[in-house]
Design a protein that fits this description.
mainly alpha, membrane, 3 helices, NUOK/Mnh_C1-like, transmembrane helix
């Protein structure tokens, strides 16, 4: 098994684990984590596809780096929205 195939299988496994978590879980925080796991699987597949040729495809590598920044920003925004849904209690 080549290294590219290993990354492809690993990325697919991560994506499927994230999809399972997204379908099964009901809490917002767990669903956000499941989406992040799915995104990590997509990034692994893109890195594997970029490394198929020599030299590696710089466009896919740049997309992965950009996607990481967007995923981190979207996760922070989603966490903020999930935390604002709970009313504060006055004691």
């Amino acid at each position: 098994m080549t290294q590219t195939a290993l990354y492809l299988i690993g990325g697919l496994a991560l994506w499927l684990i994230g999809l399972h978590g997204l379908i099964v879980q009901h809490y917002a925080l767990r669903r956000i984590i499941a989406l992040n796991i799915m995104g990590s699987g997509c990034f692994m597949v893109m890195v594997a596809l970029a490394s198929r040729v020599q030299p590696p495809d710089p466009v896919l590598q740049a997309l992965v780096v950009t996607g990481l920044v967007v995923a981190a920003s979207a996760s922070a925004f989603a966490l903020r929205l999930a935390s604002s849904g709970k009313p504060e209690q006055d004691e």
